[in-house]
Amino acid sequence: MKFNSKSKSLLAALAIALLLLPFVTEALLGRGWVRIVDFAMLYIMLALGLNIVVGLAGLLDLGYIAFFAVGAYCYALTGSPHLALAFPMAFPDGVHLSFWIVLPLAALVAGGFGVLLGAPTLRLRGDYLAIVTLGFGEIIRIFLNNLNAPINLTNGPQGIGRIDPVSVASVPLNITQNIFGIALPSVHLYFYLFLACTVLVILVSQRLERSRIGRAWMAIREDEIAAGAMGINTRNLKLLAFAMGAMFGGASGALFAGFQGFVSPESFSLMESIMVLCMVVLGGMGNIAGVILGGVLLAVLPEVLRHGVVPLQQALFGKTVVDPESLRMLLFGGALIVMMLYRPAGLLPSRVRRRELDTDEAAEKV
Amino acid sequence: MEILLQQIINGLVQGSVYALVALGYTMVYGILGLINFAHGEVVMIGAMLALSALTALLGLGAPPALALPLSLVLAMAGCMALGYGIERIAYRPLRHAPRLAPLITAIGLSIVLQNLAMMIWGREYHSFPQLIANTPHNFGGAIINDIQIIIFVMALAIMAGLMVVVHRTRLGRAMRAVAENQHAAQLMGVDINRVISLTFILGSALAAVAGLMVSANYGLAHYYMGFLLGLKAFTAAVLGGIGNLRGAMLGGLLLGLIESLGAGYIGDLTGGFMGSNYQDVFAFFVLIAVLVFRPSGLLGERIAERA
Hints:
With about 375 residues, chain A is mainly alpha-helical.
């Protein structure tokens, strides 16, 4: 990538704005909102991972959060005292692997699940993948909920707590640190960690998109038969996209577990998968900037609803008629429908994608 | 031996409900070649509508013998309207769009339906009122009660009726023609839009019946019940060969049996490691196994991949 001086200065301004973001947010809205921004970054990472699967390769994955769960539980098991309950002889204090060892492992394990799931379904038409992933998301949750007996692996619905915080260069991020005389609370530290990870994910996505593999994915998305005729090994490349997306999901999951210090099955419900899918669809499938926009919008929306809708209803009706949670889901579902009907390429569409999803044009061709 | 018989009975009853729902998936798939993701939610709405109508009618003092059929009819009418609406909103505008688009609208629609149901009926479980004496009968050592008998017989009757509709009537012929080749059917004067709408309506009516049956069988209805039920019924449709009506019926019954036998014996098979709380997992493994070994299903002649 080459930058001219104008885009260089733009990039620098953006970088400074992002570096100051947690301080500005804290000053304007309070520290709770910095945490929300942190979660937004996690969601953006997830959405970028799903974007590879849905946006680039055109495979609908409805159980994406399951890979996030796999990653989160990987770190929860290997970075907490929990395993001492199941195997007191082998691990009297539990397992406390370094986060930076677990991170690639979590990605690999999630990717492995992706391959297991994708191998039988990707030979078939896309809708099968959608429904199998939907089922997989639910199955993972059933297993997480029930694997507390007879060997207590996941601690069931109670979840696993006391997960070690992430440490960068043996500086733990869960307490306020003084760096160059600036006091950085935990949420700020995690913000910078997530920012670095997100930038990395963006760079990787961008590189992938412009690579031979990325072009092959887009070719498959647009016409699988034609792509196959051009010598693209469609099955392997679809599997690669699916596994790659799963790996991103797994890595974000490990970050989530370290950040939160606690994981439980209820964080990984179908609704979370739908939310991440919504981010990708709303922003613009296949377009990185669009996906980021979608991620920011949808991660902040529930908080706005929580802080806006409840008081509004209290003022209007004197009680809460519609709870913000179901209102949020209603809006997500509605957004999926409306976007597909009226703006299928998303708010910030990628050029290729727009051409392809334009229904009028497609109808003309038929 | 009694336990085995009992599991078989439970499996067949549950399976007949799966079969009814699976028919809805398979009819739509046969005609449009797409999975109607929102179908499970139609079942849920059917159950909820039937329960509400039933409670209201009983509250008005209607005798159960009148209230039950009437609430079933109301639920069917509601679901038929819903099915028609789903097709018009989510599928018809996107009939020529890329494949991903109708899948996403369908997902959006089922989320909307689920949350609307939650707003209307709340998060709690609704219990099915005790209407008939529900006498248990001893059947070779196993217990089968009245409700189970009614469900099974009714499901078989409805399936037989559907076969008659599809194979003996003008509408059925039109449906088969559209499934075979949409353009050719259109050229022969079949009103495709009407046939597709009627297919959705028919499938949704079956879903309403299934919804009432499920809630009567378990004694409960819940806004979230449609999701897993839909997933399992879809599995049943794939197991039998999606697009094939007889396959959906066979697949439904088989899946019911697999689930109930699996849940009954998984404890013994895994040495107590997994219990019957894994019951919901079987359908998923069946689905994966079918997709790996026989993607066209048990009775499906057509190859599943028809890009």
